[in-house]
């Protein structure tokens, strides 16, 4: 060790062992002192000359180090400031002065006092040779490098460092600025030779720099990685946003182009077409989320999907049409002929603005299914719209687009559904159309059905005329009486009356049963329904002119049978009269079979309602009174008047009828028609009521096997009435043997099936006396009176 330039001074000064830090000469630093011994040392030093010896503890964790626990080379320092901190510790600011070495520890308590050698020197004594010069430059370079790599050292220090001429000081300064391990600090402190000290520092710094470089590299790598990930994420998000923006726009443009292309292909009036194209363009201008775009889309969808010029080709072949009608419907010969004629005329006169067919008859007689067959035989599409209870014109003509949730009307909807502009379009229940404050659907319908107007039918939603003139309209109704006259005028009425039991039986066996078996996935082997069982269903489970409930009951049988087959694992289910109740429950109806007893004052009439014919028993009681006429059983005005006409006839002809001519003075007559809940009206019970009254007044019984229908005049003439077929069928069901009908209804008898004709005797009557002759039992023959 070249200590020759050093001046050595021996001194006894207090000592403080430092934990985890070193102090170099020229270094100014503050630290907190907490250990009692150290505080004592500080206090002693302040009393003397403020000098203190600072050396590093070998193991910083030791609280109470002994002499062997600290390095013996340290720094003689000067205390510059002391500040008492709360809690008893002291913050000191000190400045390193020179190196020192412990020779001896003079005392350990109450503080360490060491005998040291202090090494000082003069700047001018230093000889700087080339080696030292070079080493100094290396250290400065190292420091520069260190500063650029480490963020912990301020670059301004470089200037201070480069100006230092003293190699020893240079190292001490640099060492105090860079962060070194305690052992390295100690190695520098213990290097008294300047060159050696420079070399040590150079080595240490090189090592440090290398570590810093590695650190930096790692850092960079991590940073690059992080920033790469971040950048990619950011770019990707941006790309997505751009793509979305472009894509949505593209999609919208494409959608609009699509609409426009389709609209351009449509054959529709130019003006409306332009309007539709404009609407499509508006989609581009409106915000995609606005409610209006939804309405526009709905509108455009309707426009492009409507069959503007799609027409199915008619196949008019009478032979095959007849075949279709015959295979799908039993009987109805006249109806089928009328329909074939209708089709034939179509063939001869293309584009005929012909009348509209109106199928009139009770429910379930096959009006709808005939209309379907017509469509099938013409090779046209079929759509059906029920008019029952439609009050709102908008249902027919649609709502304006400004209306929330607006939609086109049913006509346009169904045309779209049919996919062609010339379907068979069935208006069901045209007689049930009603009108109220929401507009008059009948007049809208009139426009639809009017061949002069319907080629420009304009739905409120579409606001574009659609040609309905190619549509074949068919309507159905239960009666014609409630069809608005202007509508009825345009229609050709085809009446379908109810079926006889025999016809129902055939329809059931040939059509309904096979159809229901198929619908329930059953075969003939799975389910057999005996003929008597079918008749039982007809007579005891249904009471109708048509076959709707019959079909429903057959469907019920099929459903229960299917369940049984699946559940009980049986192969075949046989339904017969004996077990029918297991499938359908107890019989619902019992036909009012005609009383087999002849009674006074009880006559059987025949009524005709919208749901078919009925037998009607009319009862009359005559009792002492004041000549009052009482009518009960919910009778309509026409029926009441008809009763009064009968009474007048009786009064005028009392003598001939063998009745006292002033019978009405002290007699009350009560006419009652049972089943009061059902409203009854019409003049056709006229002769029946008169007969019952005469029977009651003369006390002659009426033949219970006779039924009658006919209007009566004051002169006793019998006038024709409607619904003969229905009435006859009802009488037949009730077991009537003889029916009196007005002579003018003779032609109606042609419609009566032969089977019925064989069982019933028809008497054509034209005056009341004839009626009485047939109906009243000849005296003495009276089996019972009431
Ligand atoms: P409507 O329209 O007159 O009320 P539907 O056409 O709905 O009656 O007929 C009810 C059911 O009865 C349908 O399944 C139909 O096929 C059937 N039907 C009615 N009449 C006949 C018939 N003459 N031949 C075969 N099936 C019939």
Plain-language structure description:
With 786 residues, the chain is of the alpha/beta class. The chain folds into six domains: 3-121, Archaeosine Trna-guanine Transglycosylase, Chain: A, domain 4 (Roll); 125-214, Methane Monooxygenase Hydroxylase, Chain G, domain 1 (Up-down Bundle), CATH 1.20.58.1480; 251-305; 318-495, Rossmann fold; 501-584, Helicase, Ruva Protein, domain 3, CATH 1.10.8; 598-784, Ribosomal Protein S5, domain 2, CATH 3.30.230. The strands form seven sheets. A seven-stranded mixed beta sheet has the order 19-20-18-17-22-25-26. The protein has a five-stranded mixed barrel with strand order 1-3-4-5-6. Helix 23 (754-759) links the parallel strand 25 (738-742) and strand 26 (761-765). Helix 16 crosses helix 17 (531-541) and helix 20 crosses helix 21 (686-698). The model is unreliable at 781-786 (pLDDT under 50). Adenosine-5'-diphosphate binds at residues 329-332, 363-369, 476, 507, 511, 546-548, 551.
Short description:
This protein is of the alpha/beta class and 786 residues long. The protein is 43% helix and 19% strand.
CATH architecture of the largest domain: 2-Layer Sandwich
What's the total helix number? 24
Overall CATH class of the largest domain: Alpha Beta
Number of structural domains? 6
Low-confidence stretches: 781-786
What's the helical proportion of residues?
40-55%
Spell out which ligands are present.
adenosine-5'-diphosphate
Compute the gyration radius: what is it?
Answer: 60 Å
Structural class comes to alpha/beta
CATH fold-level assignment of the largest domain: Ribosomal Protein S5, domain 2
The biggest beta sheet is recorded as:
7 strands, mixed
Task: Tell me the distance between the termini.
Answer: 161 Å
């Amino acid at each position: 060790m070249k200590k020759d330039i050093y001046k050595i001074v021996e001194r006894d000064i207090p000592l403080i062992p430092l934990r985890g830090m070193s102090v170099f000469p020229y270094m100014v630093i503050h630290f907190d002192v907490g250990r009692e011994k150290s505080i004592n040392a500080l206090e002693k030093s302040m009393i003397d000359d403020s000098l203190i010896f600072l050396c590093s503890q070998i193991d910083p964790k030791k609280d109470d180090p002994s002499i062997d626990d600290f390095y013996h080379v340290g720094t003689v320092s000067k205390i510059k400031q002391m500040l008492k901190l709360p809690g008893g510790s002291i913050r000191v600011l000190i400045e390193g002065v020179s190196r020192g070495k412990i020779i001896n520890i003079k005392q350990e308590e109450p503080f360490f006092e060491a005998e040291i050698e202090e090494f000082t020197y003069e700047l001018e004594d230093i000889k700087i040779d080339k080696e030292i010069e070079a080493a100094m430059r290396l250290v400065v370079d190292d420091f520069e490098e260190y500063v650029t790599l480490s963020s912990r050292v301020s670059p301004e220090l470089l200037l201070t460092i480069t100006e230092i001429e003293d190699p020893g000081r240079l190292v001490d300064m640099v060492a105090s600025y860079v962060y070194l391990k305690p052992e390295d600090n100690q190695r520098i402190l213990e290097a008294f030779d300047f060159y050696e000290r420079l070399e040590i520092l150079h080595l240490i710094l090189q090592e440090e720099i290398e570590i810093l470089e590695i650190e930096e590299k790692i850092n960079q790598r991590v940073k690059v990685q992080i920033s790469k990930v971040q950048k990619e994420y950011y770019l990707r998000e941006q790309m997505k946003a751009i793509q979305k923006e472009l894509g949505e726009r593209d999609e919208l443009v494409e959608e609009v182009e699509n609409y426009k292309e389709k609209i351009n292909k449509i054959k529709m009036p130019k003006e409306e077409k332009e309007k539709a194209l404009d609407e499509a363009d508006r989609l581009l201008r409106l915000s995609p989320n606005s409610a209006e775009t939804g309405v526009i889309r709905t509108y455009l969808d309707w426009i492009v999907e409507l069959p503007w010029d799609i027409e199915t080709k008619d196949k008019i072949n009478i032979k095959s049409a007849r075949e279709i009608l015959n295979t799908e419907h039993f009987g109805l010969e006249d109806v089928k002929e009328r329909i074939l004629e209708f089709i034939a005329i179509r063939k001869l006169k293309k584009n005929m603005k012909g009348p509209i067919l109106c199928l009139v008859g009770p429910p379930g007689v096959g009006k709808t299914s005939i209309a379907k067959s017509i469509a099938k035989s013409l090779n046209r599409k079929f759509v059906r719209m029920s008019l029952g209870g439609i009050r709102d014109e908008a249902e027919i003509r649609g709502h304006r687009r400004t209306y929330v949730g607006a939609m086109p009307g049913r006509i346009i909807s169904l045309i779209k559904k049919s996919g062609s502009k010339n379907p068979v379009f069935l208006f069901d229940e045209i007689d049930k159309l009603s009108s109220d404050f929401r507009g008059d659907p009948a007049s809208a319908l009139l426009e639809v059905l009017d061949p002069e107007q319907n080629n420009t039918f304009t739905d409120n939603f579409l606001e574009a005329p659609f040609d309905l003139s190619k549509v074949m309209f068919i309507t159905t109704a239960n009666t014609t009486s409630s069809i608005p006259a202007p509508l009825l005028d345009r229609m050709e009425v085809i009446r379908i009356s109810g079926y006889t039991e025999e016809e129902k039986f055939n329809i059931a066996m040939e059509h309904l049963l096979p159809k229901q078996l198929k619908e329930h996935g059953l075969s003939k082997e799975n389910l057999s329904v005996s003929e008597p069982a079918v008749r039982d269903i007809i007579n005891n489970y249904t009471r109708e002119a048509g076959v709707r409930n019959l079909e429903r009951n057959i469907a019920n049988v099929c459903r229960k049978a299917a369940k049984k087959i699946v559940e009980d694992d049986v192969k075949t289910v046989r339904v017969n009269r004996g077990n029918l109740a297991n499938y359908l429950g107890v019989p619902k109806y019992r036909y009012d079979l005609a009383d087999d007893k002849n009674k006074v004052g009880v006559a059987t009439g025949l009524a005709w309602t919208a749901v078919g014919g009925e037998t009607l028993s009319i009862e009359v009681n005559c009792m002492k009174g004041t000549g009052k006429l009482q009518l009960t059983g919910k009778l309509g005005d026409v029926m009441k008047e008809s009763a009064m006409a009968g009474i007048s006839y009786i009064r005028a002809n009392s003598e001939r009828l063998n009745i006292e001519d002033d019978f009405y003075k002290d007699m009350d007559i009560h006419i009652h028609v049972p089943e009061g809940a059902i409203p009854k009206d019409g003049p056709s019970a006229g002769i029946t009521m008169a007969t019952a009254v005469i029977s009651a007044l003369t006390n002659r019984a009426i033949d219970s096997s006779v039924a009658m229908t006919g209007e009566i005049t004051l002169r006793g003439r019998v006038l024709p009435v409607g619904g003969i077929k229905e009435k006859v069928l009802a009488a037949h069901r009730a077991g009537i043997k003889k029916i009196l009908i007005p002579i003018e209804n003779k032609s109606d008898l042609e419609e009566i099936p032969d089977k019925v004709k064989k069982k019933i005797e028809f008497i054509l009557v034209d005056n009341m006396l004839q009626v009485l002759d047939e109906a009243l039992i000849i005296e003495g023959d009276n089996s019972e009176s009431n």
